[in-house]
Amino acid sequence: MTAIGPSAPPPATREATLREAFGCEGAGLHTGRHARVRVSPAAPGHGLVFRRLLKGQAHDVPALWPNQRTRPLCTALQVGEGPLVRTVEHLLAALSGGSIDNALIEIEGEELPIFDGSAAPWCALIARAGRIEQDRPRRYLRVVKRVEYRNGRHKQSIDPAGTFTVKGSVTLKGLGQLRWSGPIDPETFARELAPSRSFGRLKWALAAKLFGRFSREPVLRGASLSNTAALWGATAVGGLRMPDEPVRHRVLDLVGDYALAGRPLLGRVTAVMPGHEHNHAMVAILLADRTAWQEVEIDEGGEPRPVG
């Protein structure tokens, strides 16, 4: 097992859920429509499951790779021809980054609230609700050989490692190359990644909003300067929260998208110009290569033990 440095706590040995439920509401980034959400504790082995409430009927949508659907500028989920749940990545990142394995997410509406464009509001709600470990070993996907994805200048790889770490980079006109690297654990995620906001070039965002207004597919209908870092030149309108905010947000999204693997990851991710479609492609490649990973539990000594 790869040695764990002092900045990376050892992987949890037990599954966890919320100590208590919480509710929230707000408008979506793409639909612009208001939605109400309630996130509740769930039993061991339940996983992260969205429940779409539609015309008095509940439709469960597990946050798993087979349910991923391609939609512009977000991660969406759907079971068969059932109702869609879109823009799930920030909540999934906050739950996954916070080591929450089991939760029921009920939503009245199609799209989760965007809040300020970051995952910080979700992290604050999760922190207030609390985390409680459960009487079930936590199972991981332990990467045992390198897997790679390439699409032009977009590249990702996952190498064997004893914890989940990410090294991400993006290159943006006016800002140059931005890099972030670190472990994905509750403290690091909440402090370094969660505050970073969704972003885009102002001129492209305006064009996308016009496209969304006249198309059947909602795109950025709810976007505004209060929930998006609108890039202009070498900064954003109103300023960036940190100089490398864009790459931090791309890593945040990657954490949420990788949660669709259904198990927390033990691996070292290197991502050049990550984005939703590239994250989804990397997850598909990983899961398709059954020789690239093992399902393991972590014993009390911190060592992985294969299961199944």
UniProtKB/TrEMBL annotation:
One GO biological process term is: lipid A biosynthetic process
Q: Could you confirm whether the keyword Hydrolase appears in this record? A: yes
One Pfam family name is LpxC
Q: Which Gene3D superfamilies match?
A: lpxc deacetylase, domain 1, lpxc deacetylase, domain 2
Is Metal-binding a UniProt keyword of this protein? yes
Question: Keywords assigned by UniProt?
Answer: Hydrolase, Lipid A biosynthesis, Lipid biosynthesis, Lipid metabolism, Metal-binding, Zinc
User: Could you tell me the superkingdom of the organism this chain comes from?
Assistant: Bacteria
Output this protein's name.
Answer: UDP-3-O-acyl-N-acetylglucosamine deacetylase
Native source species: Hansschlegelia beijingensis
Q: What is the lineage of its organism?
A: Bacteria, Pseudomonadati, Pseudomonadota, Alphaproteobacteria, Hyphomicrobiales
